[in-house]
Write a structure and sequence with these properties.
This protein is mainly beta. It has a single domain, classed as TonB-dependent receptor, beta-barrel domain (Maltoporin, Chain A), CATH 2.40.170.20. The chain contains 5 helices and 37 strands. The strands form 5 sheets. It has a 22-stranded antiparallel β-barrel. A 5-stranded mixed β-sheet has the order 1-6-7-4-5.
């Protein structure tokens, strides 16, 4: 089999990591028994269940639509990419560039309109530039993921019009690990998936006391080509000419991090250093692979100032060094680099009556370059400085929230020469001053009901590639052309929602709509350049509207529709649905034309049963056919994917083992994603994965 990258493989493999898990548990079990007195089988080391991105003041109730994926749900839904991990969340899809690259798509918006955060700090990478660029975040190391939908996420970036995905990994501990006397906690995971013959393992250890905390983690993943229900051709050297697998979809990833925090009477100061490496096939071309390298350093601190106008000050700083090399066979093709830093200071003021709030300053600077024959944009520098505020006013009936953000953004390029020394890209510079504001309300309607609403006006500065691109882009199979004259992207958005909860029963529904005065889309021009269709970044009027719903009904057990013997068994039914309709309303480009790569309407359900240490799930997700596509684009058929899982908890001293098995695409159904560019450019070579059985064990202590 042809190697997916000329870089040497790591000396330690997944098998070695998995084999060390038992030794790690044994070595630390004696200390864990003395230092960690938790004996409840359901107790696991975890952070407080607060949606950080949804409410910077730390309140549990958020006005903006939000959700959290953690615990057993995260364990069973975890995939190789962040987008695939979250795609069962209402309103969230995956851009799916094969099994190795996929960013979250929220309410039909992707790329830079969805902000990816690590512990509320920026993730410096190039994943928003191209569909084949994965985020340097592996779900193996995640403790929980928070999803904040809609433009109310403007506190975390003016470009976050679709929402925010915040990945929490606790690499900088924000609270003591195990009480004043200290102790050690940890987690280890090992699994194997049949569909891609994928073995993976991860381990983390945290220790300390009320004065300090240390964190160490490592992970490894090794997967072959992904199995699918049909036979596909493959021109990769050393591979079969045809097989029931996606050609060039193998992947190897490994990395880890160290971090630590010192706690003081009035706060804490912590730092971390993380590395991520991944070598994977691009799927779009049989003999092109990618070597990704990312290093991220972060610093975070909190200082409380009781008695004054300012209650506390929180600071964050991170620096990322990202490199993404595309190999054509064994030869280096194009090298993408993105180096940058982000800083953020938040000041929480004391309460004025029922009014509380946070004021802040954020700055970010990146230096991007793409070097090689297929580079489609010049080296560039982006600098941004922003002021933001978030205020909450408590009332007898609920609360009101106010948010505002103003930025100064400069995007500059010095141009570039081609191999012959001739001008390849022109120099240019643009300055923007986007401003955004949001207003929200939460009403306690009684009877377990809450009503919420958000109104937001947002502006986004164009990105470097939207301004200066001019060249062939392999991932989109098109010649992409930027427009240096683009103005601010502007939108007005509203969402209204209702939530109800009664014991185990719950229900939530949100309707949303956005109107764009200048939506920057990549649209065909009708011309051809070097035998490639030309697509230009163009500002158009657009409209997005949709609905998200989710709920849980307890069928058996306490507060259920039926009672089991001694309430030993619990049976819940989870329901979910979403739909979004995105339309180009620009009169000059064809009013009523659908925007590309929009997810179809989806419905899903999961039946969850639990009895003591045992648990089982059976569920499905159905995607309707997507016929609302731009003229000349491929429609996608509807499909239903079933999944099933079985879990069992086991005590081992003071450690808890969670054994699990999950079957995805139980019926081995052939399906294609409407949100994947590959469905348009390389059809039928990139279907969704076929049947796969994943078995594993997770240990916590």
């Amino acid at each position: 089999m042809h190697s997916i990258t000329p870089h040497p493989r790591p000396r330690w493999r997944t098998a070695a990591l998995c084999g060390s898990l038992a030794a790690t548990l044994t070595a630390l079990d004696a200390r864990a028994q003395d230092a960690n007195p938790r004996t409840d089988a359901s107790a696991t080391p975890s952070l407080s269940e607060v949606t950080v991105t949804g409410n910077p003041l730390g309140a549990a109730q958020t006005v903006a639509p939000s959700s959290t994926l953690t615990g057993e749900n995260l364990l069973l839904q975890r995939a190789a990419t962040l987008g695939d991990t979250l795609q069962e969340q209402p309103g969230v899809a995956s851009s799916y560039f094969g099994p190795n690259a996929g960013r979250p798509v929220i309410r039909g918006l992707d790329g830079d309109r969805v902000r990816i955060l690590q512990n509320s700090g920026a993730s410096i990478d190039a994943s928003s530039l191209s569909y084949d660029h994965n985020t340097p975040i592996d779900p193996l190391t995640i403790e929980r993921v928070e999803v904040l939908r809609g433009p109310a996420a403007l506190l975390y970036g003016g470009s976050a019009q679709g929402g925010v995905v915040n990945v929490i990994d606790n690499r900088i501990p924000r609270e003591p690990v195990a009480g004043p006397e200290g102790g050690v906690t940890g987690r280890a995971d090992a699994s194997y998936a049949s569909g891609a013959r994928a073995s993976s393992g991860a381990a983390l250890i945290e220790g300390g006391n009320d004065r300090y905390a240390l964190h160490v983690d490592a992970f490894s993943r090794d997967a072959g080509d992904t199995a699918v229900p049909i036979t596909l051709g493959c021109a990769r050297p050393g591979s079969p000419e045809s097989a029931r697998r996606i050609c060039n979809s193998a992947n190897r990833a490994w990395g880890g991090a160290v971090g630590g925090t010192a706690f003081f009477d009035r706060g804490y100061l912590g730092a971390s250093l993380a590395g991520y490496r991944s070598d994977y096939g691009t799927v779009a071309e049989d003999d092109v692979s990618i070597g990704m390298r990312s290093t991220r350093a972060a610093l975070e601190g909190l200082w409380r100032l009781p008695g004054g106008l300012i209650e506390s000050v929180k600071g964050q700083f991170s620096h990322g060094d990202y490199q993404h090399t595309e190999f054509e066979g064994d030869a280096v093709g194009t090298v993408f680099k993105n180096r940058g830093s982000e800083g953020r200071i938040e000041a929480k003021h004391r309460a004025f009556g029922r009014l509380t709030g946070v004021w802040g300053l954020q700055w970010e600077g990146t230096r991007f370059s793409a070097l090689g024959e297929e580079a489609f944009l010049p080296p560039s520098r982006t600098r941004a400085l922003a002021l933001f505020a978030h205020e909450e006013l408590g009332t007898d009936w609920g609360k009101l929230t106010f948010g505002a953000r103003v930025e100064q953004v400069r995007v500059r390029t010095e141009g570039a020469l081609d191999a012959a020394g001739e001008p390849r890209f022109a120099a240019g510079s643009r300055r923007f001053t986007p401003g955004s504001a949001a207003l929200g309300a939460l009403v306690h309607a009684g009877g377990g009901w809450q009503l919420s609403g958000n109104l937001a006006y947002t502006q986004r500065a164009p990105k470097d590639y939207e301004l200066f691109a001019d060249g062939p882009h392999v991932a989109t199979a098109a010649w992409e052309l930027g427009n240096p004259a683009l103005g601010l992207e502007r939108s007005t958005s509203v969402d209204v929602g209702a939530q109800w909860k009664d014991g185990a029963h719950r229900f939530a529904v949100t309707a949303f709509a956005s109107r764009y005065g200048n939506y920057i889309g990549l649209l065909p021009t009708g011309r051809t350049v070097d035998e490639l269709p030309e697509y230009a970044y163009t500002g158009v009027k657009a409209r997005f509207a949709g609905l998200e719903a989710s709920g849980t009904v307890r069928l058996l057990g306490r507060q259920g529709l039926w009672r089991s013997a001694a309430d030993a068994s619990v049976l819940d039914l989870d329901l979910r649905a979403d739909t979004v309709r995105a339309t180009n309303t620009n009169t000059s480009t064809g009013t009523g034309q659908p925007l590309p790569l929009i997810a179809p309407a989806r419905v899903g359900a999961t039946l969850r049963w639990a009895n003591g240490p045992w648990g089982a799930r059976l569920g499905f997700d159905h995607a309707m056919a997507q016929h609302r596509v731009p003229e000349g684009s491929r429609a996608t058929a509807g499909y239903t994917l079933w999944n099933a899982s079985l879990t069992w908890r086991q005590k081992l001293g003071h450690a808890q083992l969670q054994w699990y098995a999950r079957v995805d695409n139980l019926g081995n159904r052939l399906a294609y994603s409407a949100t994947s560019i590959l469905t348009q450019t390389v059809f039928p070579n990139a279907p969704l994965p076929g049947r796969s059985v994943r078995v594993g064990v997770q240990a916590t202590f």
